[in-house]
Structures are given as C-alpha cells and as structure tokens.
Design brief:
mainly alpha; disordered C terminus; single chain; 17 helices; 69% helix
Length: 475
C-alpha cells in the first residue's frame, strides 16, 4: 500500500457538510512505523535525550557544577527568550512543518548540555572549569537554548495532541510524559553513581536526540486509529499564520483563563530545585532526590492519564475529576513544604548539607517525590485541557505555543527572583499563591468550555479557512 493510503470511505450522510473521511491504515512494518502511538513514542525519545537530560542537570541546582546564582541567571535568560520564541513558534510550526520545527528545537540542548553536566571533579570540559569567570558563557548559552526550546516544545505539543483521537489524549500524553522523564531518571542515576567519569557520554546522548526527528514520519502520512488522517497546515503565507494567532484567541477567549495554570507549571521549579533541593542537600542527596523526583513523575503522569481517559466518566466528568485531584495534591504538598520552609532562610542554610544517611533525610525526600507527582499531573492536565478544546492541528500548535510561552515567562520570573536572592519564604508563598490561582481560574473554563466532544463551531481556524476557500471559489 502506498504511504498516502487509499481512501476507504466517507460518511456521506453527515450533516452540515461535516463528513469525515476514513482511510485504511497501512499493514505490516509500514503500519507499525506510521502508527500514531509509534510516532508519539519516538517523540518521547527525542525529549528523553534532549530536554530530559537537561532536566536531570537542572534538578541538581546548577547541574552540581555552577554556583546557584549563575544557574538562576542562566535559567532566567533561558525562559525569557523561551517565552518570546514559544509565543510565535506555533505559527512557524504551521508554516515549515512540525518535523523541521522539532529538529531545529533540539539544537540548543547539545550546546547547553556541554556546559551544564553532572558534577565531575576530574572533568576539564565545562565552562566553569575552563575559566572561573566564564559564567556569562553559560548564561548566553541558556538564552540561545530558550530560543530553540520554544520551537521544540511547540512542535511536540502539536504532534502529540494531533496523533491521538479524543478518547486517547490522556493516555498518549501520559505515555509521552513517562518516556520523557526517563531521560531525567537516567541522567540523575548517572550523577548519583559518580562512576561516569566522561562527561562526553551525556552530550553524545543529546546529539543522538538531535538526529531522531529526521527519522520520524511526516505527519500528513499518519492515520489515527479511528481511520482519520492527521490534518496538515493549510495557510500559504506568514500573514495568514499570524492572523490565525489572533483568530485563535478571538474565537476561543476561554483559553485566557488557562494562562495562570500555564504560568504556574514551571514557576514552582525555582523553589523545588534551588531553594529546597540545592539549599539543604549535598550533591549525593540532590542526585538521589532528582532520581526519585523524576521516577515519581512517570507514576503521576500514568495515573492521571488513566483518570482522564476513563471509560466510566464522560469527558466533562473526567475534567472535573482531574481538577479535583490537582486541588488535593497541590494543598497537601504545599502545606507539607511550608512546614519545612519555615525552619530555614538564606542566611541560616547550614554549611554542612543534608546527606542520604542523615536521620531527617527520609522525610525530606518524600516531599520531592510528591512534588514529582504534582509536576507530572499538572502538565498532563494542561495538555489534556488544550487537547479537549480542539482537534485542529493548527489551533493545537498555537495553543501549545501559548502554553510554553506563558510557562516560560513564569519560570523566567521565578529564576530571576531567586537570582536577586529574595527570601526563600517569599518565593515559596508566591509559588503557592500562583498554583492556587491557576486552579481557581481554570475551574470556570472547565465548567463553561469543556464538552463531551469537540464541535465544529469550536474550530475557529477551520471555519475561517472554509470561509476563505468559499470566497476563492466564488471569485
């Protein structure tokens, strides 16, 4: 069978000209390669090898190699450029295609990973070891990574949400999130073992991740499990793409209620990794904390994914169930964290950091585990809500860009506040308030906007294109 697949049939009785063509899926090895789940798994490995390794290094607090202030400034620069890049990357993704956008997005990780690698006192490869005043190079590299990361995550969001049917979005998101976090688990395990003398290894893995997008299938050749084809971008010019950005907001303003939820999704990393993990624990304990944190993310993503795709509830019911789970775990984790945060400040942080053999360590590591559960569930919920608002590939690319842009802006602010050495308690309370605001604002959006199925009247870009096409035909 050809890669384009022959049309098997269409529903000619559909009303309002909203018929959906059904295609026969390829068989054999071609069927496996072009299967949407295969492509989501491969996409997961791209993020496993690029941002996954980066997350393992960031979780150590400066990769265990740079001072906390340099790390915070680098992350602030990264997320500031990321916010700008991600806002417009949806239109770029629609214009040049998801594969090229994803490929370009991986490039910055190789550069940055070569500078922020697991702590190795025998290494001479990091910028900090080359020259003690080279922190500016790490910060500049962070800014460049922010530009490319915006493209990677926008392409990832568009592909992940486009390949699945409405009933599969929760489980596809959780599968991707689990594979992605294995990268951070592996990176953390390497650092914990302290037996991986060559820092070239992680860089090589990242470079492998750069090559994988070239091996992925073209999205227009992927047929979903229900026989429908993934719809490719339709707009012929940059002008129409940027106009689509505006149309997406005007036709669906409810997405604005999700912005606090998006903003909180990375803001809380500052307190977790720099003001708790790096502040209280030595490098060995930080590495173990990291390992357990990312492992718990795999569990959290699978659990919430199963809830959001449950056959026992309608889609609206699943949305409220997911929101309720987030509400409970958010306040449990932050009440617990407040109990620890009130015991130390920047001035009172002990010089002798907590080790894994200290008697108080077990209770403290459990907080990192529960933060991992919250982190994964928060991201799965964000992506699932975006996917529930539309099935249109172009609209999903734009919404994915919104998510990563707002997320990056929040993260840039958080890391910059930490670089300015605001009190730990101030950063913690602001984190708690932001996650609470995200839940409060998202509730009316779920109540008013989430339906049991996506309707054609929700697809503002498709309607706009149909109107343009009708006008063209008449002319």
């Amino acid at each position: 069978m050809s890669s384009s697949s022959e049309e098997k049939g269409g529903d000619s009785s559909s009303q309002n000209n909203d018929s959906v063509s059904v295609y026969e899926r390829p068989k054999g090895l071609r069927g496996v390669y072009y299967h949407p789940l295969t492509q989501v798994i491969v996409l997961g490995f791209v993020c496993f090898l690029c941002p996954g390794m980066f997350n393992a290094l960031t979780g150590l607090g400066g990769g265990g190699q740079v001072d906390a202030t340099t790390s915070a400034n680098a992350n602030s620069a990264l997320y500031a450029t990321y916010a700008v890049s991600a806002f417009f990357s949806g239109t770029v993704c629609n214009k040049i295609g998801a594969k090229l956008t994803l490929l370009f997005g991986t490039l910055g990780y190789a550069l940055y990973t070569s500078l922020l690698h697991p702590y190795d006192p025998y290494s001479s490869l990091s910028a900090i070891n080359i020259h003690p005043g080279a922190g500016w190079f790490v910060i500049t590299s962070g800014a460049l990574l922010g530009v490319t990361a915006g493209f990677l995550w926008t392409a990832q969001g568009s592909m992940m949400l486009s390949y699945c049917t409405e009933a599969q979005k929760g489980i596809y998101i959780s599968i991707f999130w689990g594979i992605f976090n294995v990268g951070a688990v592996v990176g953390s395990a390497v650092s914990l073992g302290q037996n991986f003398r060559s820092t070239v290894g992680i860089l090589v893995l990242t470079l492998i991740g750069v090559t994988i997008p070239m091996l992925m299938a073209d999205p227009n050749k992927v047929i979903r499990t229900d026989g429908t084809r993934v719809v490719m971008p339709r707009h012929p010019s940059w002008k129409s793409e940027f106009h689509g950005l505006w149309v997406a907001i005007i036709t669906d303003p409810m997405v604005l209620l999700l912005f606090p939820l998006f903003c909180a999704s990375a803001y809380f990393y500052t307190w977790q990794f720099n003001d708790y993990n790096a502040a209280l624990f030595d490098i060995r304990a930080r590495s173990l904390n990291n390992l357990l944190h990312w492992l718990s993310q795999i569990v959290g993503s699978v659990v919430l994914g199963l809830v959001l795709d449950s056959k026992w509830l309608r889609r609206r019911g699943r949305a409220f169930a997911g929101w309720s789970i987030l509400l409970v775990i958010t306040f449990v984790v932050h009440i617990w964290a407040y109990y620890y945060q009130r015991t130390y400040t920047r001035a009172s942080v002990p010089l002798q950091k907590m080790d894994i053999y200290d008697p108080q360590y077990p209770a403290h590591v459990w907080l990192m585990i529960f933060y991992g559960l919250l982190d994964a569930m928060w991201h799965v919920m964000c992506f699932w809500l975006i996917g529930a608002m539309s099935n249109d590939t172009n609209k999903l690319a734009i919404y994915s860009g919104f998510f990563h842009s707002i997320q990056a802006a929040g993260s840039a602010i958080g890391w910059r506040l930490d670089a300015l050495k605001l009190p730990y308690m101030t950063i913690f309370i602001s984190t708690w308030c932001l996650v609470a605001a995200g839940l409060v604002f998202s509730f009316p959006m779920i109540y008013l906007r989430i339906r049991d199925t996506t309707m054609i009247q929700d697809e503002g870009l498709i309607i706009r294109d149909q109107e343009v096409n009708d006008t063209t035909v008449k002319e």
